[in-house]
Amino acid sequence: MEILGYIAALLIGLSLGLIGGGGSILTVPALVYLLGLNPVISTAYSLFIVGLTSLVGSYRFYKQGLVSLKTALVFGLPSIVAVYATRRYIVPAIPDSIFTVGGFEVTKGILLMLLFAGLMVFASISMIRQNRKVNGDVTVDENVDHDILEENGTSETLAQPKFNYAGILAEGAIVGTLTGLVGAGGGFLIIPALVLFSKLDMKMAVGTSLLIIAAKSLFGFMGDVANYEIDWAFLGIFSSLSIVGIFIGSYFSAKIHADKLKTAFGWFVLVMGVYIIVKELFF
């Protein structure tokens, strides 16, 4: 199972490189079910792995001019505050035993895994539904392929961000809290928010999202350092494999059309989410 866990690390990065998202949502299940880690520490480790992997991925977009630093700052600040506060104070304050129903004890670990499974179900629906309408007349893909990002290079003029400050600040805080609870990046929530509230070009939204995910995840992990004993050697190995996977996936993304892969991966995430719910509640 340990070998499968490290293979999963490679596959997580491979997914991010091939289809531009989704892989990070498998990090917590891999840590819990394959490597046998506690769900609470797994969400902490996931923040570091997702943050570091997203940071590496965002650099590629930054070099192409596809990162809006201003948008990342406006969205990222409330998100960073929320995720740090959640990891530093809220998660440790959740009691180990929450309540008991008919002899079934709902623990902190079970609660976090059920929240995570719910996020997986919503993320899978986002990936399965290839497109959505934005403002009634613009169709965007919430999980843009890397080959789409490379079309026409950066020669076309990208829209300058026009902020709906109330919307983007609220969304940033919500996503930050969610990230703090379950340890997932939440890119499937961030990208549509950037398009809707910041009026970003879709290409710019994907690159900016990676930078936001990196910042809030790594800052959130800092809130865990004071609460848990961290196995830095393990984190280094797992994160390195994930980053290797990103480079492999990015190489093949120009050769493989990712639409079908994205849909298949969405169904896989949906099955995994349902499996976690059933396992935690009944087994």
From TrEMBL:
It comes from the Bacteria. It is found in: Cell membrane; Membrane. InterPro entries: TM_pro_TauE-like (IPR002781), TSUP/Inactive_protease-like (IPR051598). It is a multi-pass membrane protein. GO terms for cellular component: plasma membrane. The lineage of its organism: Bacteria, Pseudomonadati, Bacteroidota, Cytophagia, Cytophagales. It holds the Pfam family TauE. Keywords: Cell membrane, Membrane, Transmembrane, Transmembrane helix. This is Probable membrane transporter protein. Belongs to the 4-toluene sulfonate uptake permease (TSUP) (TC 2.A.102) family. The chain crosses the membrane at residues 6-35, 42-61, 67-85, 106-128, 173-197, 232-252, 264-282.
